Amino acid sequence: EAQLVESGGGLVQSGGSLKLSCAASGFIFGTSDMNWARQAPGKGLEWVAGIYSYGAAEYADSVKGRFTISRDDVNNILYLQMNNVKPEDTAVYYCGHGFRAASFRGQGTQVTVSS
């Protein structure tokens, strides 16, 4: 069974950094495009970043220059390095299978940025 498990969320001050992880299992991670998306309170799901199986990445304008998506194909882990975070980055963050739309996602990890 394909599974994604996010971790690394928490409370961080504005301007700080946080690194999210997503452990993948049950499918061939190395040949899969992957993404991160987030959902803020009362809002819809927002795509944050995607990474192709060969390593190229793209970002939403709201996080470009601050967030970095990366992957470890040996250990089947997807990462999201978040730098210079802002209160508007507060959301539940989900990793997903696919570059933009996801065929399935994990349960999410909460990130809260205090001002």
Mean pLDDT: 97
Measured by DSSP, the beta-strand proportion falls in over 45%
The percent range for helix content is under 10%
Topology, number of strands: 10
Your description of this structure?
The protein is mainly beta. 0% of the residues lie in helices and 50% in strands. The protein contains no helices and ten strands. The strands form two sheets. A six-stranded mixed beta sheet has the order 2-10-9-4-5-6, with no helix packed on it. Strand 4 (34-39) and strand 5 (45-51) form a beta hairpin. The radius of gyration is 13 Å and the shape is globular.
Question: Layout of helices and strands, plus pairs?
Answer:
Layout: E1 3-7, E2 10-13, E3 18-25, E4 34-39, E5 45-51, E6 57-59, E7 67-72, E8 77-82, E9 91-97, E10 109-114
Parallel strand pairs: 2-10
Antiparallel strand pairs: 1-3, 3-8, 4-5, 4-9, 5-6, 7-8, 9-10
Key structural traits:
115 residues; mainly beta; six-stranded mixed β-sheet
Give a quick summary of the entry.
The chain has 115 residues and is an all-beta fold.
